[in-house]
Amino acid sequence: MIAHDSYKSIPDFYAGKTVFVTGGTGFLGKVLVEKLVYSCPALNKIYVLIRETSKQNVLQKLKQLLDSPIFTRLKNERPEDLNKIVPIAGDLCKPNLDLEPSDEEKLIDEVSVVIHSGATVKFNDALEYAMKINYQGTEQVMRLCRKIKNIKVFVYISTAYAHTQLDIIEEVIYPPPARVAEVYETIKRHGNNEKNISKILNGQPNTYAFTKALAENLVAENHGDIPTVVIRPSIITAGITEPLEGWVDTWNGATGILHLMGNALCRVLPGNKHSILDLIPVDFVCNLTLVAAAKCNSSKKVTILNSCSGSCNPITLKQFCSLYCNVAVKRKTNVFPFPYLILFNPHIWMLKVMSYFLMTMAGLADFVMRIFGKQTMLFRTQSKLYSIVKSLRYFLIKSWLFKCERVCALNAELSDLDRAVFNCDPSTIHWEQYAQIYFDGVTKFLLEKPKNLRTDASNN
């Protein structure tokens, strides 16, 4: 059973409250901040932890955040509410989050809801760095939570792929993949030596999943009396309706591969065509996070919620790729004719040979195009594609079943109005329609202002 408060609605829960958000400048974090202010108009304030750099202070970074297109509806309808978004200088890598004493005092006195979304999501980060942000950063946030005078709930954003050693992932806490003391000893003795690090990962595909699994156990063991929720999203993708239809601002994860495939620049991928492609739109993850904080704040146990689509609304890798290619043909945006995708399961050496062959052919094609004064792009594209595929290969060839009974139960408890405003039910996703929304979102928000393809990002 989901324990919950007696608030009449989700906005009613947040009325008069102050929320502290980490990772507020990341893909999910931006959507969380905007949704909180827009859909909970009686919210008091949001403190957003922002890391200063030598080039930008927190006010400059806040301006950059608010310049995002996702805040358009707030600017048009209630511009004064943007003042509720307040930056707090800090760093997940530093002791006590590197907070100024006056800022820490504000958080302790005023905050009642903490949403910890900050993380490095790079798959290939050095273990030491991933531990600093994903594990020690979570530890620092929890220490702050224990100081907060009137904390109602702590929400930790994890990942559904923290436990890929299992075929079926339930909404429960699992044993950690390693003892933390052993992890630090390995780092101390071997630094970032890949061979030795792979041993301590204990079957985990990368340092991101590994450190997220460790952080989940840290949260479970140290939350004390603080009502705590762990959200496990699968592959976070473009929003369906909010904050803008098709909103996406990063080439991470599935987006980069889908774009190249739709342009017929990627025709062969390692993968199982029958594998479930577990996509979850960013607005669904955002809505579940806000609903969970409002509804799961009476339980003394940690509430785990898998924000995934595969168990209630499955679509295979082959099916979704076909839908996406169909949209590309319909929109007539493909660079080369007849986009299609062949999926197979190669050994890593075969993947390297295939990639080197394709890059060689791409280099020759670029040479010919340069002779005729055409724009060259194929070699660079194939090189980036190889980097993306190498990091995602493990997730393309395997398949998992993420159970989401608690998410379904939570959604069933919502009023009709809350269910409409905070939709977090993956069974409502219409995949053919979503493929069009996703494709158009990439075109509108990424291609109109071209960015280099990236395989990873940090939202610390």
UniProtKB/TrEMBL annotation:
Q: Name the residues that span the membrane.
A: 349-372
This protein's species is: Bombyx mandarina
User: Would the keyword Protein transport be found if you checked this record's keyword annotation?
Assistant: no
GO terms of biological process kind: long-chain fatty-acyl-CoA metabolic process
Q: Which family does it belong to?
A: Belongs to the fatty acyl-CoA reductase family.
Against SUPFAM superfamilies, the record matches this protein to: NAD(P)-binding Rossmann-fold domains
Q: Name one Pfam family in it.
A: Sterile
Q: Function of this protein?
A: Catalyzes the reduction of fatty acyl-CoA to fatty alcohols.
Q: What class of enzyme is it?
A: oxidoreductase
This entry carries the following GO cellular component terms, namely: peroxisome
Q: What is its EC number?
A: 1.2.1.84
Give the reactions, separated by semicolons, that this protein catalyses. Answer: a long-chain fatty acyl-CoA + 2 NADPH + 2 H(+) = a long-chain primary fatty alcohol + 2 NADP(+) + CoA
Q: Which branch of life, at top level?
A: Eukaryota
InterPro entries the record matches: FAR (IPR026055), FAR_C (IPR033640), FAR_NAD-bd (IPR013120), NAD(P)-bd_dom_sf (IPR036291)
What UniProt keywords are attached to this protein's entry? Lipid biosynthesis, Lipid metabolism, Membrane, NADP, Oxidoreductase, Transmembrane, Transmembrane helix
- GO MF annotations in UniProt: alcohol-forming long-chain fatty acyl-CoA reductase activity; alcohol-forming very long-chain fatty acyl-CoA reductase activity
Locate the Fatty acyl-CoA reductase C-terminal domain: which residues?
A: 360-448
Q: Where is the Thioester reductase (TE) domain?
A: 21-288
Q: What is this protein called?
A: Fatty acyl-CoA reductase
